[in-house]
């Protein structure tokens, strides 16, 4: 199985970017991982929130295949602890899917088309984090999930 993370906009903070790169490298020991960053949409001041979500949604959908399992990282999604997330990953790997795609949306969330296409929603927290920090938190949780599955000492129970 491959895992892909799709996000909108680059990470501006060099410290966050360095940490993200570190966890992406660590994750590569466990699974094929792709981090797909869609550039910010230009001239958004002339677009409504709805129009911006629609444009972002089209760009995100263009980066997916029909066979992909698409999971939105959404504040209203299912919450789970790290051990449950590891089991969630294992369940998907056991199902024989080729690519599991996670999506971090833009500042206004997801388009209706993305919600319709999605196979599920996950929430990292009830709190709101910057889109740049969520990337780091999510990639770290992917890494943690695989260390749990391999019974490695990274995660302490």
Describe this structure in words.
The protein is an alpha/beta fold and 157 residues long. Helix content is 42%, strand content 21%. The longest helix is centred in the C-terminal third of the chain and has 19 residues, at 131-149. It starts with a strand and ends in an 8-residue tail after the last helix.
What labels would you give this structure?
5 helices, 42% helix, 157 residues, globular
Please describe the topology of this protein:
Elements: E1 2-8, H1 14-27, E2 32-38, H2 49-62, E3 69-78, H3 82-94, E4 99-104, H4 112-117, E5 120-122, H5 131-149
Parallel strand pairs: 1-2, 1-4, 3-4, 3-5
Mean pLDDT: 95
Element pattern in H and E: EHEHEHEHEH
Structural class: alpha/beta
Q: Nearest-angstrom radius of gyration?
A: 15 Å
Distance between the termini: 27 Å
Helix content: 40-55%
Number of strands: 5
Q: DSSP strand (E) fraction?
A: 15-25%
Overall geometry comes to: globular
């Amino acid at each position: 199985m491959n895992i892909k993370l799709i996000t909108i906009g680059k990470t501006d903070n060099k410290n966050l970017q360095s940490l993200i790169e570190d966890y992406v490298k660590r994750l590569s020991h466990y699974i094929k991982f792709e981090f797909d960053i869609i550039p910010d949409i230009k001239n958004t001041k002339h677009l409504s929130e709805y129009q911006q979500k629609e444009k972002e949604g089209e760009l995100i959908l263009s980066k997916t295949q029909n066979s992909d399992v698409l999971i939105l990282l959404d504040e209203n999604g299912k919450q789970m602890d790290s051990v449950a997330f590891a089991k969630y990953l294992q369940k998907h790997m056991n199902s024989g899917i080729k690519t599991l795609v996670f999506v971090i949306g833009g500042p206004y969330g997801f388009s209706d088309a993305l919600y319709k296409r999605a196979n599920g929603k996950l929430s990292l927290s009830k709190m709101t984090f910057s889109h740049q920090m969520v990337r780091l938190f999510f990639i770290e949780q992917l890494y943690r999930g695989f260390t749990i599955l391999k019974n490695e000492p990274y995660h302490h129970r």
